[in-house]
Amino acid sequence: MMLQCREAARQVSKGLDAPLPLKERLSLAFHLWLCPRCTEYQRQLLALRAMLGEELEKLLHPSGDSDDSLTAKEKEYLLQPLTRSGG
Ligand SMILES: [Zn+2]
Fold it and tell me: What is the distance in A from the centroid of ligand 1 to the CA of 15?
């Protein structure tokens, strides 16, 4: 029995979140083998997901500068104008 494209698309996106049951995986693989449109859909979903995953990583683990990244000497230099009251 041939899988409908709509059902195949649903399984593609479902399969990204959790492994599909073997039966669904096989019917999906068979459909993708025959259907370039759904293969392309799967490819785009994977690319999008990879991209979003990278963005999420950046948000969760920012490599930007925090206060701790400054050395003691740099902090001293930055605070100089504030602590020096003479003039
Ligand atoms: Zn299809």
Answer: 15
Q: Write the pLDDT tens digit of every residue in 13-31.
A: 999 888 999 999 999 999 9
pLDDT at 65 over 60: no
Count the residues in the chain.
87
Q: Residue 25 Cα, ligand 1 centroid: separation in angstroms?
A: 14
- Say which residues have a Cβ less than 8 Å from residue 28's Cβ, sequence separation at least 6: 3, 8, 11, 12, 15, 20
Ligand 1 center–CA 17 separation, angstroms: 20
Centroid of ligand 1 to alpha carbon of 54 (angstroms): 28
**What is the C-alpha to C-alpha distance for residues 13 and 32, in angstroms, rounded to an integer?**
13
